Automatic annotation (TrEMBL):
A Pfam family annotated for this UniProt entry: Sua5_yciO_yrdC
Function: Required for the formation of a threonylcarbamoyl group on adenosine at position 37 (t(6)A37) in tRNAs that read codons beginning with adenine. Catalyzes the conversion of L-threonine, HCO(3)(-)/CO(2) and ATP to give threonylcarbamoyl-AMP (TC-AMP) as the acyladenylate intermediate, with the release of diphosphate.
Compartmental location: Cytoplasm
Catalyzed reactions per annotation: L-threonine + hydrogencarbonate + ATP = L-threonylcarbamoyladenylate + diphosphate + H2O
Enzyme Commission numbers on file: 2.7.7.87
GO terms under biological process: regulation of translational fidelity; tRNA threonylcarbamoyladenosine modification
HAMAP family: TsaC
Protein source organism: Pseudogulbenkiania ferrooxidans 2002
Keywords per UniProt: ATP-binding, Cytoplasm, Nucleotide-binding, Nucleotidyltransferase, Transferase, tRNA processing
Protein name: Threonylcarbamoyl-AMP synthase
Length: 171
């Protein structure tokens, strides 16, 4: 389904997320349309491991990887220099991409089972409240999205977003 450009709704740390193959431009367009999200903002990608993040980013030094290992898996999304392979729609108007190695067991298991990182943006229309249940996702998106059962984590707030290069906290 992902290879054919499908979109998933799945549980994450604080809400359900909408996700797709991060290299499938048609699927990214579907996610943006479902959310009514502007193209210039870019999207977060989650993974089960740094190995799943590597195709999305420029190579890191051993020291940089060690620094990221202090935070991952965990609720920290880092802006890292995007690989030239990253579709512009995924990173928006930025030259960096937002990535996180998730500590949410179900989301990490999904990435492991699929063998890939996933786009992960809150399941809601832009500006509206994030959806917290599979049932709410099915009501909101119907057959346009394959909604997986699951339980969100205990986090009340979305992940912290940090520019890795500058250390600046953006959210």
């Amino acid at each position: 389904m992902l290879q054919q450009g499908g979109v998933l709704a799945y549980s994450t740390e604080s809400c359900f997320g909408l996700g797709c193959d991060p290299f499938n431009v048609a699927a990214i367009r579907r996610v943006l349309a479902l959310k009514a999200r502007p193209n210039h903002k870019g999207l977060i990608v989650i993974a089960a491991s740094l190995a799943q993040v590597r195709p999305l980013i420029r190579p890191l030094s051993a020291a940089e990887e060690a620094e990221l290992a202090r935070y991952w898996p965990g609720p920290y999304t880092f802006l890292l220099p995007a690989s030239p392979r990253v579709p512009p729609l995924l990173r928006g108007r930025h030259d960096k991409i937002a990535v996180r190695v998730t500590a949410h067991g179900e989301a990490a298991a999904l990435c492991r089972a699929l063998g890939t990182a996933l786009v992960s943006t809150s399941a809601n229309r832009a500006g509206q409240t994030s959806l917290k249940t599979a049932q709410a996702c099915r009501r909101a998106f119907g057959a346009a999205v394959l909604t997986l059962p699951g339980r969100i984590g205990g986090s009340r707030r979305p992940s912290t977003i940090i520019d890795f290069e500058t250390g600046r906290v953006l959210r």
